[in-house]
Task: structure prediction
Amino acid sequence: DTEVTQTPKHLVMGMTNKKSLKCEQHMGHRAMYWYKQKAKKPPELMFVYSYEKLSINESVPSRFSPECPNSSLLNLHLHALQPEDSALYLCASSQLRLAGGHDNEQFFGPGTRLTVL
Amino acid sequence: AQTVTQSQPEMSVQEAETVTLSCTYDTSENNYYLFWYKQPPSRQMILVIRQEAYKQQNATENRFSVNFQKAAKSFSLKISDSQLGDTAMYFCAFMKQIFGNEKLTFGTGTRLTIIP
Result:
């Protein structure tokens, strides 16, 4: 299984709603990532989890709350979002290797298209 | 901080032709990785090819090859015998070779259209 899955594919929510995005991989990867991608822009890193611990938080607003329940799952909890948070949210995973590793490329999921009304 | 520059926002070529996408980067690191990712209209980011900076030999994957010039900090992607399925946004990306810091820095992308 060389796939990263994300649910839901599309999500429309109001500014007062609470929702969650889910990501799953069964490749034994120990690093998982959340990216935000606006239209016609490159992905922007939000969070990195290494061995289920948050290792990088790119100064993301607290209305985005990541969670890594186990090595295969990654969630992104959303609360009180703003319309400007509408974007494609991409999850990715990779191996964690010591320096010199050869298979540290990130595998991406298909994304969740989020619209905040 | 690392920066990645893709100077061609859009390109188009006829099917079966060869096309080269350019990418330059700026870093003070000596050891790092470079990637080309493809994002078709279906949105899924797919790895096209990777290059380790310590390797002098240019990476190739079937119709895809790179021209890696470390001194010039240049990393271009050549697509030979282009096919309609190559139509996509292409992102060049940089990663430091540091364990536990697998952060990808992306360029702004090149939108490639293959014309039938």
Notes: The CA atoms of residues 38 and 87 of chain A lie 5 Å apart. DSSP finds no helices and eleven strands in chain A. The two ends of chain A are 36 Å apart (CA to CA).
